[in-house]
């Protein structure tokens, strides 16, 4: 039997993170997708739903459903956009801000635990390697999207 490929290991790590998130959010109105919306608003500040949709590469309808749910759970609020009467700004509520502060703290703790699992001499190399893998995967996705767009236009 051959050793697992790098991709196999990355898929396992992804699966483990998904299991951890599912456990963490079980019984709450939160999910991986809704947390992605909260992260986007946390980092961008008050932002339009259109900007959230573009950031997460999701349809406006999907974002609207997530924002509706997060507004209902008290994590987000919509306010009138000051310059565009057709748009609303989405912002964290005090409960949403508290949740994101707690989440940032837990992420820092888990990051420290995961980093500590790696031999000290290998930690910097691990981080450089993960950055390189993420960058290359981003490039491959962009190349595929460009190729798919060219194919759709009949360009070879």
Can you describe this structure?
The protein is mainly alpha-helical. It folds into two domains: 6-117, Arc Repressor Mutant, subunit A; 120-149. It is 69% helix and 8% strand. The chain has helices at residues 6-25, 32-44, 49-56, 60-72, 94-116, 123-153; strands at 47-48, 76-80, 88-92. Strand 2 (76-80) and strand 3 form a beta hairpin. Helix 3 crosses helix 4 (60-72). The model has no long low-confidence stretch (mean pLDDT 91).
Alpha-carbon Rg, integer: 19 Å
How would the global form be characterised?
globular
What percent strand? Answer: 5-15%
- Helix % is 55-70%
State the end-to-end distance: 40 Å
Question: Given the structure, what is the number of helices?
Answer: 6
Oligomer, anyone?
single chain
For the biggest β-sheet, the strand order reads 1-3-2
Structural class, judged by helices and strands? mainly alpha
List the helices and strands and how they pair.
Elements: H1 6-25, H2 32-44, E1 47-48, H3 49-56, H4 60-72, E2 76-80, E3 88-92, H5 94-116, H6 123-153
Antiparallel strand pairs: 1-3, 2-3
Helix pairs in contact: 2-4, 3-4
What labels would you give this structure?
Arc Repressor Mutant, subunit A, mainly alpha, 156 residues, 2 domains, three-stranded antiparallel sheet, 6 helices
